[in-house]
Amino acid sequence: MGPVRLEPQAEEELRARYERFCTTRGGGDCLGLFEDGPYLRSDDRSTLALALAFGSVLDETYAALGRELNPKALIASVVWTVGIYMGLWLLPEPVTKGAAAVLTVALVAWLGIDTMWGLMDGWAELVMKARVATTFDELREAGAGFAKVLGTDAARAIILAVTALSGRTLREVGPALRSLPSFRLAQVQLAGQGGPAWMFVRVKQVQAVAASTEGALAVTVGPEVALASAMMMSRNSAASASSGGSPATEVYRHHGGNRQVERNGERWHLPRGVSVNDLPASDPLGDQLQAAAKEAAASWSQETYGPKVTAAIQRMLKRGLVHRAELLERQARGRWVEEQLRLRFPHLKWNRSGVDVTGPSGQKYHYEILSGTESNFEIHGRRMASTFFRMIFF
Questions:
Q1: Percent of the chain that is helix, strand, coil (3-state, to 5)
Q2: Tens digits of per-residue pLDDT, 296-305?
Q3: What pLDDT is recorded for position 196?
Q4: Any idea of the CA torsion for 151, 153, 158, 159, to the nearest 10 degrees?
Q5: How far apart are CA 94 and CA 216, in angstroms?
Q6: 266-270 and 389-393 strand pairing
Q7: What's the average model confidence in pLDDT over 206-211?
Q8: What are phi and psi of 243, to 5 degrees?
Q9: Could you report how far apart the first and last alpha carbons of the chain are, in Å?
Q10: Residues 6+ positions from 327 with CB-CB distance below 8 Å
Q11: Beta-carbon count within 10 A of 117 CB
């Protein structure tokens, strides 16, 4: 789904809420979101959601830097830099170079590789929610979701690293950095990776950082540096064929190491550490569920909405929120299809939370009923990262 184009009334309301947000953070357009126009575009909404995710950490940074630098300009620079940097990791084959590569190395050294992958996955979800958000509260909700992944310590680490590596010299930012929360803790943590010299001197020799489809993160430095020319920090990789001999194609790899694969028209979610060799040679129950889901979806019609859903859809349409109406329609359709499957397979264990269908005793994989959109595949893979299940889609 592409970015949502806001109605004039929604644009005005969002603009007003953003200006109120800026009141205690330098006033005016505190994040520089209006430089490309008088309203908040798709990228602007993602940036605002990111600032909301930083929350109190951004405010304490503003207060700490107030005496040393122009805090308003610095905060805007930090938020935009983080947003642009994280955007690089949404590419299919992420590669960062120059200052972005330096930032990657600094953050991996500070936070660890697993935390970094989690942040990138959380950022992808934030961007997806911000693109369809139409209100300030929805952006706040998107930011809150990322804040849970981010955490206070990681937020401070990112701000420290971006501030130090934003093109200023250490002489310019040194006093400001020392005034930030957790600066001494950062020094201790970085000492285990070679100390401040590693971060601020040797790290300047970093040439590129690349993430492969196999889940490896490769950091390449110049030959003059007394480090290995490339160090690999790899996650689990899996074979390309299942135990049944049929080839399985990877269609999505989550930053947490879990992934989605397709085989003979089937879509499976494999948790981290689970190989395609763990896929069953055949899955009769899954085939029955898949056929029933397609059949139920084909017989669905608007008459199955119910009065409450119909009224809600009409309210959204009257407000010009077509995408909301479409979302309500898809949700109603999904609930109806799942209910039809529950009636058709009453002997199965259906769950109200977690995976929809628990597989029979002794079977290590389960089943999830979902619509066949890419965003839905992605969301379910993130929500149940540790569950081995087949995706039954319609």
A1: 55, 10, 35
A2: 988 887 777 7
A3: 38
A4: 110
A5: 11
A6: antiparallel
A7: 53
A8: -65, -20
A9: 18
A10: none
A11: 21
CA distance 345 to 287: 13
Report residue 368 as tokens: 């999830």
Return the higher-pLDDT residue of 367 and 322. 367
DSSP helix/strand/coil, 75: helix
With 60 as the cut, is the pLDDT of residue 121 above it?
yes
Q: Is the pLDDT of residue 203 over 50?
A: no
Q: Give 85 or 111, the one with higher predicted confidence.
A: 85
User: Would you give the distance in Å from CA 353 to the centre of its chain?
Assistant: 22
Residue where the block lists tokens 């055949």: 282
Instruction: Quote the pLDDT of residue 286.
Output: 96
Measured CA to CA in angstroms, residue 253 lies from 84, 122, 235, 238, 361 at distances of 21, 14, 12, 12, 29
Of the chain, the percentage scoring pLDDT greater than 70 comes to 68
Measured distance CA(131)–CA(248) in Å, rounded: 32
Res 216 pLDDT > 80: no
Which two tokens mark 378? 């992605």
pLDDT of residue 69: 56
What percentage of the chain carries pLDDT values higher than 90?
19
Residue 24 has phi, psi (to 5 degrees) of -95, 10
Q: Is the pLDDT of residue 146 over 80?
A: yes
Task: Specify burial of residue 41 (Cβ count, 10 A radius: 0-12, 13-18, 19+).
Answer: middle
**Window from 45-59, 199-213, 253-267, 268-282 with minimum mean pLDDT:** 199-213
Angle between helix 98-111 and 136-164 (nearest 10): 100
- Spatial distance between the Cα atoms of 195 and 266, rounded to a whole number of angstroms: 49
Q: Which two tokens stand for residue 376?
A: 């839905």
Query: Chain-centre distance of CA 152, in angstroms?
Result: 17
3-state secondary structure 173-223: HHHHHHHCCCHHHHHHHHHCCCHHHHHHCHHHHEEEEEECCCCCEEEEECC
DSSP 142-175: HHHHHHHHHHHHHHHHHHHHHHHTSS--HHHHHH
